[in-house]
Amino acid sequence: MIQIACKKVRYYLVPNTESSANELILLPVLRAQKAASGGLIVTQKYLNGAAEYAKSWPGPVTSLFEVSPLPSTDLDHVEVADDIGGHVIEIRPNDLKVLARRLQSASVVVGFLSPFEVGTTEICNRIGVPVVHVAEYTLRTEWQIIDSSGANPIVKLRRKLWAWKAERLRQYLIGISAGLQCNGVPTYRAYREICPDAFLFFDNRVKNSDIITSEKLARKTLEVQVGRPLRLVFGGRFVPMKGVLQLPRVARHLSQAGVPFELAIYGAGPEESKLRSAISRYGLEDQISIFPPVDFDQGWVPFLKQSADLFVCCHMQGDPSSTYSETMACGVPIAGYDNEAFKGIVEISGAGFLAPMGDSKKLASVIADLHRNRDRLVRAAQIGVSFSKQHCFESTFSRRVDHFKNLSRHPRKNDFV
């Protein structure tokens, strides 16, 4: 965990009058952990996004975090102070009346489309503050995540019933919200009948300046076409929903088919021991290597641009992973299971290679075909880069802020002070 020198986190119980009614208030679904120093532990990915909002929003930007005693499973934890990256971090009041007073300074509130935000959204309606919710998971995706959890059938059934009830509340929330932003195709398609002006975006933390250049892509193209062993890669949390235990199965089928490859797996998580055991059981130690997480900007992005030919994505559900657009921005095509999020981005971008969900043998066959036809890999890389340029980090967040402005209490930019 990275530590940043910090001051004590502020506990606001009343609105800051100096920023009256022009504040962008974010209610992240991510919970913070309280550090011994008095600061909060959150993720660098979240901080980068909030700071990017602050560049385009003509007023204060504040994140109100709920606090959890347990850390999240994310891999980029940092300890922060109350004011960092151009926006302010605060602890979210638990009392709804206190929260209502705090939200009175907002021009717009951005929340996560969750049944837990029903009370907050109703309060905002009463005090005249518009709320824009961000949607990520469809009911289908939530059920898939439950199926991948390994819980017993009774527990799974109870969780699915809860998710079904939560979906009814999400639809109610959309009806009382000022607007909706959909991260990825699945939620956009699921909710656009309820909210015809829903905003579609693809989460992506690769900056425009970090997208692979045409010169480097051309050099990479020559390397791919030489015909050397495919440099396969996976990066992410080692948790069931990411399908990390599918990777050794895919690799075993590739090995049995005589496809030359090397697979680099980056990440950490509770499935690591099982992953290592599977690699050993299949005798793949010479072809698969596991590495700890690396810094996104200084390690992961350069690695993808220089040393990866194909990303193998075994996600067992349709979460709108930023991995898709970020990997394509580095000139690395993706072959993966046809979950609804990846399938949607393939349909829109024209890049990527699909295999039936959970069919490791078929996914290996798709990769084997790409090994024999390297031109398809090259073309997919080129298309993916073009798509990512349209959806780079800065452009995506700038468009999202424009959407917030249009739905705020001050819909015209020159109304802000």
Automatic annotation (TrEMBL):
GO terms for molecular function: glycosyltransferase activity. Residues 230-380 form the Glycosyl transferase family domain. SUPFAM superfamilies: UDP-Glycosyltransferase/glycogen phosphorylase. PANTHER family: GLYCOSYLTRANSFERASE (PTHR12526). This is Glycosyl transferase family 1 domain-containing protein. It comes from Erythrobacter litoralis.
